[in-house]
Design goal:
globular, mainly alpha
Length: about 190
């Protein structure tokens, strides 16, 4: 599995499609909302899970995110990335939940397994390999890898979403890939 193979111009879902689905959702189109949910639920869940580190809480935040999207789709401005907008909502809701609950727990292997198996960007046969490799990463590294590889966001979008400088995101991403490669090759030197 080549985590670095995706290019900056290869999103997992064409922006035009997500923009169209958001615009139609804003007009009350239930089918468009279903399409938007199907296209983005994996990425939204991954974002919530990376912040909350609890599968049940992440599922709740995913549901809450889509409720907010249904009621606030008209607030999306087409100048930005539709996926980044959705993930910003999920991240903010997850952070609010953390503040409310005032807790953080380590993510178990079982909870990593809860990342939706139907993610179109991560083939089922690669999930076990990915989970093993992700286990050895720091939280920020794991978030960046998931957002880029599983959600298809560009590094620049991830930097904005995580409120980090682009250079930091790139550095953490490349360091994470090296760690993952070492882990998969059985060389845990890093």
């Amino acid at each position: 599995m080549d985590m670095g193979a995706r290019t900056e111009t290869e999103p997992s879902q064409p922006r035009e499609d997500l923009r169209d689905l958001l615009a139609r959702t804003a007009c009350g189109d239930h089918e468009a909302f279903e399409g938007l949910y199907a296209a983005a639920r994996g990425a939204v869940y991954a974002m919530a899970l990376s912040v909350l580190k609890n599968a049940e809480d992440a599922a709740d935040v995913t549901q809450e995110t889509f409720v907010k999207v249904w009621t606030g789709a008209g607030q999306y401005r087409p100048s930005g990335s539709p996926m980044a907008w959705l993930l910003t909502i999920a991240r903010n809701l997850a952070r609010m939940k953390l503040r409310r609950d005032s807790r953080q727990v380590d993510l178990t292997e079982r909870e990593w397994d809860a990342i939706p198996a139907r993610s179109e960007t991560v083939p089922a046969e690669d999930r076990a390999v990915l989970q093993t490799a992700l286990a050895g990463l720091e939280d920020a590294e794991r978030q960046i890898v998931l957002l880029h590889a599983a959600s298809g966001l560009k590094h620049r979008e991830i930097a904005g979403l995580l409120e980090m400088p682009l250079a930091t995101v790139l550095s953490k991403y490349h360091r994470a890939l090296k760690k993952m490669k070492a882990k998969l090759e059985g060389d845990d030197v890093l």
